[in-house]
Amino acid sequence: MNKLYKKLYPVLAAIITLTSCNKTLDTAPISSISSASFLKTENDVKAANTGMYILLRNETSFNSFALGELRGETVAQGLAGTGGYDRYYNNTLTPDIATPQITWVNYFRVINEANLIIKYAPSATFTTEASRNDYLAQAYTMRAYVYFLMTRTWGDLPIRTLGLESYDYNTVQIAKSPQTDVVALIKADINKAVTLFSANTFQTGRNLWSKPAANALKANIYLWTSKRMNGGTADAQTALDACNAAQTADVSLLPSFPSIFDYANKGNKEVLMAVNYNYTESVDNYFFNGYLPVTTAFAANVDPAAKAAVGQLGGNNIWSPSALVRNQFTTDDQRRAATFIEINNINATTGAKTFYAAVINKNVGTVVSGTRYFAGDIILYRYADVLLMKAEAENALGQNPSAEINLVRQRAYGAAYNTHIFVNGTKETNDNAILKERLFELAYEGKRWFDLVRFGKAFDLVPSLQAKKGQDYLLLHPINVLTLSLEPMVTQNPGY
Fold it and tell me: Can you tell me the distance from the alpha carbon of 122 to that of 14, in angstroms, rounded to the nearest whole number?
């Protein structure tokens, strides 16, 4: 970390800091770090860019997973209780939840960093225009990504694009804009970003936004609007084009599914964009809550193979892979063992198995000196995801999605692939197959809830929602009372 960044990050972190629940966003959100007196050189912009990614990491470590996964059917209560997250997987969210409470405030901090870079990078001194454009492209992509996550969660949102440097009530306090306007900004940002990136390459580690990653995000955005916002075939075609563009980069499926998440194999060729973690620098990320605590007391008759697979304990286990999802994986799918471990106790006389626990076995970090650190990179986009989005776009356009689905299945089933070959069917059966393949491939990567909503299947496939079909307001989160108290011009989402 360079000296400039060490000096300036404490000020960066003060952006839109909330000092009390009875005040609006009235703390001066930034000092001289991001004003014209500082963002004058390439190194200044680089420092602000680093701060932007750290703010993103703060949210992906936990909150983004909760928003993107927990309301689906993939998780259930773990051994350590619920931690309050049963409100998510039971779909009983209300505005007054105190714990856990996820607000949009910190996401707007990420957006504010992007806004400041967009504001000042054009006038800062750079060694090359390509470097300037790459920083701008990263900022536009980041703003698009965060707004896309937020609008899928809360719908209508305040649109903030100015880059706040001092408090002005009329600037800070604004009402929500319609989701159509939010999405228009998202599309404008991602399209601008794709044109600004100077090359179709990755930075070392693949943990900064790049042109291939921006194209993956673009495909995701346009698939959403194709299905959810009347974008139809035009947006499906744009998504397909974006997938094709992402495929021209240095990407490929790894032969071994577990190796994608190996701590020692970060930034591999399957990764398009990941949020970087390191056991020496950051706290455990959300996979911590899907593993077993060090205090776990295994029974004497526990399945020794499962115990060995778990290995070094370390976690909290407030959520667990649901039986509904575990039972859908076939035993010849290598993704099964790499996604979860079922732990049974075995009767010594009869050999009968009694279920004890299940843990998420994807991205379990690294063990150092007998301590497990959940510091694997959080992958936002990888190549298998792009292939399945391409299949989805092709199907929407009446094309055959078999090639892409079968590429993913070949890796998953290996020698057993011939019994799992996908055969093109109707649009509806193809979509159902793609959605299920995304479950097997991407479970516990923070995508399932958004997939279910995009495909229009949340009320069909999530047990806690099946009796509530027709209550479409539940597809959005309520805006919690803390946010409403801080943003007096913001109104509650309908239904809550």
Answer: 24
Task: Tell which residue, 195, 236, 185, 235, has the closest CA to residue 215.
Answer: 195
Determine the Cα–Cα distance for residues 343 and 298; give it in Å rounded to an integer. Answer: 10
Q: What six digits make up the tokens of 122?
A: 């054009």
On whether the CB atoms of residues 251 and 332 are closer than 8 A, the answer is: no
- The phi-psi region of residue 359 (left if phi > 0; otherwise alpha if psi is between -120 and 50; otherwise beta) is beta
Separation between Cα atoms, residue 406 and residue 391, nearest integer Å: 10
Residues 148 and 144: their CA atoms lie apart, in Å, by 6
Cis bond leading into 304, ω under 30°?
no
Q: To which residue do tokens 């602000």 refer? A: 48
Tens-digit pLDDT profile for residues 177-188: 999 999 999 999
Side chain identity at residue 35, one-letter code: S
Torsion angle, CA of 166/168/169/170, rounded to 10 degrees? Answer: -130
Contact 379, 415 (CB under 8 A): no
Would you list the DSSP string of 395-413? Answer: HHTT---HHHHHHHHHHHH
| pLDDT mean over 395-409 | 98
Task: Say which amino acid occupies 482.
Answer: L
Cβ atoms of residues 219 and 239 within 8 Å: yes
Overall average pLDDT of the 415-431 stretch: 98
Q: Which residue has the tokens 């993956």?
A: 216
Task: Give SS3 for 218.
Answer: helix
Residue with tokens 């773990």: 78
Q: Which of 59, 61, 62 is nearest to 70 (CA)?
A: 62
Percent of the chain with pLDDT over 70: 92
- Angle, vertex CA 416, rays to CA 413 and CA 418, nearest 5: 105
pLDDT, averaged across the chain: 92
Neighbours of 234 (CB within 10 A): 12
Burial of 257 (0-12, 13-18, 19+ CB in 10 A): buried
Dihedral sign (CA 21, 22, 24, 26): negative
Return the residue matching tokens 């405030």.
Answer: 105
What pTM was estimated for this model as a whole?
A: 0.92
pLDDT given at position 169: 73
Categorize the per-residue pLDDT at 16 as very low, low, confident or very high, splitting at 50, 70 and 90. very low
